[in-house]
Amino acid sequence: PPPPPSPPCPALTRSAAIVIIGDELLSGKVTDVNSGFLCRELHHLGWRVRRILTIPDTADEIADAIRSLMSYNELVITAGGVGPTLDDVTVGAVARALDRPVTRSRILEDRIHKFFGSATTEAHLKLADTPADAELIEVMGGDGLPSPFAAVKCENVIILPGVPQFLQSKWPFVARCLKKPGELAPFHNVALRLGLQDEAALAAALEKVADELGGPAADVRLGSYPVSNQLDGAAIVVTVDGKDEARVRAAAVALRKWMPAAAVINELTDVESIDQTQPGGEEGRK
C-alpha cells in the first residue's frame, strides 16, 4: 500500500544556514570539517540546514551573506574569523549585518585578564568584542567555571570559532539553546543498502514512491547515493528521511516493493552516516 497521508499538523521544522569563513579553506590549505559536524548536530536536534556558504575573511562578504541568510532562515551559524589577528573580522561583519556597533563585553574582558594575567595584550582583549547587546552563551571550563571564550548569539546569529576543536567543545552549550521542546521533533530515516551497481535501475521505483508521497514538496525525502569500499558490499544506499516515523517506514516498505528482487543487502534505521567503510561506521541511533 502507499504511505499513509501526511498528518494535518506535522511536526515543525526550523530552518538553519551555516557560514564557514576562512581564506585558508578556499585556497585548499585547510579541509573544512565544521560544516559536516554542524549539519549532523543540527539535524539530530530537528533543524533542517538549508544552506552552507564558504566565504573569505572579507567583512563585506560576510555581512552580505548574513543579511541574506537571515531573511529566510530562523538561525544562522558562523564558524571562523573570531581570533585575535587582523584577518579575524567576523564579529565586526556580524555587527554590520545587524546594524549594530561592536562593543567590548566587560564580562569577557575581566575573564580574559584573569586568564592571561600580566601577559594580557590588546590582541587578547579583541576576543571580548561582540556586537552590541549580544547574548553570551556560557561555556563551562573543566574547572566548572565559565570560560573567557563564550559563544555569542545576536538576534538569530550564533558566532562560533573556526578551529574544529574549539567549535566542538562549545557545541554542547550552544545545542541547549537550540532545543525547542514542543516545537521541534527529531528526524527519522531508513537506509536501504543495495548490492546493485546500476543506479538507473532504481529510477522508476524512486519516482513512483516520490509521487505517492506527494512529489518534491513532500515531508518525506528520498535519496540515492553510490558508495564504494563498503564492508557489506553495498554499492548504492537509498535513504528515506522525515519527521513522521510511520510515513518514513511505510515509504521504505513501498520502495522495497518496487525495487529489483533481492536488491537490498541490509536495512538500517536512524543512521548518522551512510558510510560503512570501517567497523561500526554506520549504526542506528536508538
Automatic annotation (TrEMBL):
InterPro entries named among the record's database cross-references: CinA, FLAD1_M, MoaB/Mog-like_dom_sf, MoaB/Mog_dom
Coiled coil: none
Domain MoaB/Mog: start-end pairs: 17-180
Name of the featured protein: MoaB/Mog domain-containing protein
Lineage: Eukaryota, Viridiplantae, Chlorophyta, core chlorophytes, Chlorophyceae
